[in-house]
Q: What sequence folds into this?
């Protein structure tokens, strides 16, 4: 009997099967999400190679991870087994992506920019072993489109982590057109090891989370722009009326207004639908460098105590 396999999927060799139990994970991008992924992986006993083009960014990421290791158990009441130094000792920082040559799995977390992401994946494709799975951490860029720039379209999968990564249990997993069953098994197996709950969705720009969330945030910005309500009152309504822990504009400041603008622009271009048009106020704030918490100012001012001036 001849077995059939969908186009784009390949058989798994015994060597590949061994690689499914990822022991060394490459994390590209040391921003908020990237450092969170690195911490979550290292906390579960796996070695991490954290790569960023900026040595300063890497230094800041390690400092923040050390601080989070101290404070997050106080917030959650969950104590970690083993000292913080052991977790930090599993993370190696590199500025050269070529250092990912011996990793078993890659989680990419660079900015939502097609040229940057597509160039990186072509480079990763040359550096990493053919069986290595690439997890795209993206808010809106289609997995299938990125897979097409590599020679391993069956080994790309989307992993949309939420912030803060070590504390958020659920991960949106996006299956591209060519993503194989074996790749899904490797990806969801890794997430399970990280104590995360994967939810698999199809590959359309924005997926589920951002297709809904970005429209909500964008419309909230229009409300402020049109003087319907202040940012404070928009957020108060969502928290008081719907029981949300954060309002949409507080959420925008946490994510970063540049990321919000990039994500909704990708959806606007992809769907060719005017409902995704970015609010002019959002674009102006990004142009002004008011990106939210990471720059100290967004819809709120975080420069004094870091919590945002909501007076």
A:
């Amino acid at each position: 009997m001849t077995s059939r396999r969908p186009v784009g999927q390949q058989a798994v060799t015994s060597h590949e099967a061994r690689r499914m139990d990822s022991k060394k994970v490459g994390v590209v991008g040391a921003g908020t999400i990237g450092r969170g992924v690195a911490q979550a992986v290292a906390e579960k006993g796996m070695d991490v190679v954290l790569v960023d083009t900026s040595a300063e960014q890497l230094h800041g990421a390690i400092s923040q991870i050390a601080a989070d290791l101290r404070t997050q158990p106080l917030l959650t009441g969950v104590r970690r087994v083993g000292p913080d130094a052991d977790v930090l000792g599993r993370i190696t920082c590199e500025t050269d992506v070529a250092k990912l040559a011996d990793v078993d799995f890659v989680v990419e977390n660079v900015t939502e920019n097609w040229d940057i992401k597509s160039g990186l994946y072509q480079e990763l494709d040359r550096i990493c072993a053919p069986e290595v799975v690439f997890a795209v951490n993206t808010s809106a860029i289609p997995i299938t489109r990125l897979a097409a720039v590599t020679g391993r379209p069956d080994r790309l999968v989307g992993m949309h982590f939420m912030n803060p990564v070590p504390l958020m249990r659920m991960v949106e997993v996006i299956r591209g057109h060519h993503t194989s069953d074996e790749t899904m098994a490797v990806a969801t197996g890794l997430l399970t090891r990280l104590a995360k709950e994967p939810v698999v969705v199809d590959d359309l720009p924005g997926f589920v989370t951002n297709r809904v969330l970005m429209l909500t945030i964008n419309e909230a910005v229009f409300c402020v722009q049109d003087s319907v309500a202040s940012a404070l009152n928009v957020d108060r309504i969502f928290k008081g009326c719907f029981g949300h822990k954060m309002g949409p504009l507080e959420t925008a400041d946490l994510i970063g207004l540049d990321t919000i603008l990039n994500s909704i622009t990708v959806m606007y271009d992809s769907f060719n639908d005017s409902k995704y048009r970015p609010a002019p106020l959002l674009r102006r704030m990004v142009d002004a460098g008011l990106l939210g918490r990471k720059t100290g100012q967004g819809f709120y001012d975080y420069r004094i105590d870091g919590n945002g001036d909501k007076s």
Notes: Residues 1-19 have pLDDT under 50 and may be disordered. The two ends are 72 Å apart (CA to CA).
